[in-house]
Amino acid sequence: MIRLLPAFLVLAACRTPMDSPVAASPKGVWIDYDSLLKDVVDERGYVDYDALEADREPLDAMVRYFAERRLFGSADERGAIWLNAYNAFVLFSVLENGRPDSVKDVDGWLPIDGAGFFLDQSYAIDANHYNLWEIEHERIRLRRLDYRIHGALNCGSMSCPPLRRGIFTGDRLNRQLDGQMRAWVNDPDRGVRIEDGKLLFSPLFEWYADDFSRWSGALSPCVVALQYADEPLNAALRDHEIETGCAMETFEYDWSLNVSPGPAAP
């Protein structure tokens, strides 16, 4: 990433602002968006994009709301806003880019997979414009120092942790982050799975290994996952930790769009 810094600086001048034309009224905007998420996100955290596109006004209003507000409040309140913003901007960008088969299909200035989606496009919030990379790493990841945010951020892809069916709130953020980790770890398609008698982890555990070890105080991803795993996964993790010291193998990350396989759950 350090080697790419000059390219990022050049890219900053070439970003595409992703602004919503819908005027946002503070009254009810959070309630309407929370209700929309419950309607278009299914019980496994996948998205019914047909339903979202048919009723996208609450999302557009939420994007405009972020553009018109400065962030105040406690650390948890600000953290909840940034998490909500990231996930909302991903949904907004998917629609604005014509619902690509993969977020990596969005063309960008840099010859890097995903650059068009995560680096080139910027979003107004807190009196500035940020791309998704900056929101994730600078405004969320390195400010909260909480490995649980990796279970709360959804990048619009099938292997991303489940998208929450509702908004994050400052007063419930700690419980919500625990809930997201639990849902993610126990999801065999996106978290940790037992396959042919061996454990396979999401690549996120490898990509952000320092976060999981340093910020949790745990020595291995097994110890982290054990806090949230149900049986029989919990027993498999304990055995794997004892037998191998948690030698980590990962499954292949699926970057195709996180489309719900069926109608959103009622």
List the helices and strands and how they pair.
Elements: H1 5-12, E1 16-17, H2 26-40, H3 49-54, H4 57-68, H5 75-96, H6 115-120, E2 121-125, E3 128-131, H7 132-144, H8 173-185, E4 192-195, E5 198-201, H9 203-207, H10 209-214, H11 221-226, H12 233-244
Parallel strand pairs: 1-2
Antiparallel strand pairs: 2-3, 4-5
Helix pairs in contact: 2-4, 4-5, 5-7
Q: How would you describe this protein?
A:
- This protein is mainly alpha-helical and 266 residues long.
- It folds into 2 domains: 5-185, no CATH class; 192-244, no CATH class.
- Helix content is 47%, strand content 7%.
- The protein is built from 12 helices and 5 strands.
- The protein has a 3-stranded mixed sheet with strand order 1-2-3.
- Strand 2 (121-125) and strand 3 form a beta hairpin.
- The chain is globular and about 55 Å long.
- The N and C termini lie far apart (42 Å).
Summarize the structure.
With 266 residues, this protein is mostly helical. 47% of the residues lie in helices and 7% in strands. It has helices at residues 5-12, 26-40, 49-54, 57-68, 75-96, 115-120, 132-144, 173-185, 203-207, 209-214, 221-226, 233-244, and strands at residues 16-17, 121-125, 128-131, 192-195, 198-201.
